[in-house]
Amino acid sequence: MSDRPRDGKDELSRTLHELRSAAGLSTRQAGAQAGFSQSKVSRIEQGRNVPTEDDVVALADVYLAGEHADPEVRRRLVELARDIRAEHRPVVMARSKGRPDVFQARLARIEAASAHVRSFAPTAVTGLLQTESYMRSLIAERDLPAERVDAFVRARFQRQAGLAGGGRQYTIITSEAALGWRLGSHAAMADQASHIADVIGRYPTVHIGVIPWGAAADRLVLHGWDIYDERAVCYGTADATAILTEPRDVSRYLELHASIEKMAVWENDAKGLLSRLAELYREGRKQ
């Protein structure tokens, strides 16, 4: 489960590689013309280095010169770099300011630019697997206008549509304890557990694990996260979402995720656990 993409399959890395190849340049030649080392160009194309907007502009000036000039391609590359790095800051605190749908759209763009999305949610069902009832219960405490809540739900469903696309790999881990926090009615929670069970095995690139109650743990983690390739990590706080892009930070979370994967049950075992939880909720019993 913990294999990592190392060949630059995400949109930003792949496009930069394709543009360099189309220009007939080696990594050494591209680096020399852009003012980079050969190794930096290679790391960017392998998805190991998140380029800044200035890096992308420099490479675009080399690759999109003359008859190859395409301002739309340049704009898209800069947008991708901005979304996953947010300029030069190693930690960015993103606040939705009452517009959670806007931040959901931003996450959708980051996911669309990734080859492998890893998600762990210990105390709540991850947004990629939430039912509409769960979404609305989750956001109810924010007391937003109805139209903003509806926009948030639409944006989250748009993110979930990526699961069926097959264009990227997902490794999603939740916990039995997360489903023990009842949001809404018992029936709604039964539907939520059943929904996750139904998704398991439906899409070949989506792998879902559940950490069962009483699983042996060699470490404790304080929060969940989303990891985008080896480029960026997002995790939520009470007031905002932190975005980390420093390689050492991302490596740390990749290590944590690999450890959490070993605690989870997968495939039919996860499906059976979720089905039992759904039945408990249908019986109106507390977990």
Secondary structure topology:
Elements: H1 11-22, H2 27-34, H3 38-45, H4 53-63, H5 71-85, E1 91-94, H6 100-112, E2 116-121, H7 132-139, H8 146-160, E3 169-175, H9 186-199, E4 206-211, E5 225-228, E6 232-236, E7 241-244, H10 247-263, E8 265-266, H11 267-282
Parallel strand pairs: 2-3, 3-4
Antiparallel strand pairs: 1-7, 2-5, 4-8, 5-6, 6-7
Helix pairs in contact: 1-4, 2-3, 2-4, 4-5, 6-8, 7-8, 9-11
Provide a brief overview of the structure.
By secondary structure, this protein is α+β, with helices and mostly antiparallel strands. It has 11 helices and 8 strands. The chain has an 8-stranded mixed beta sheet with strand order 1-7-6-5-2-3-4-8, with helices on both faces.
Overview of this protein structure:
By secondary structure, this protein is of the alpha+beta class. The chain has two domains: 11-85, Orthogonal Bundle (434 Repressor (Amino-terminal Domain)); 91-282, Endonuclease Chain A (Endonuclease, Chain A), CATH 3.30.870.10. The chain has helices at residues 11-22, 27-34, 38-45, 53-63, 71-85, 100-112, 132-139, 146-160, 186-199, 247-263, 267-282; strands at 91-94, 116-121, 169-175, 206-211, 225-228, 232-236, 241-244, 265-266. An eight-stranded mixed β-sheet has the order 1-7-6-5-2-3-4-8, sandwiched between helices. The model is unreliable at 1-6 (pLDDT under 50).
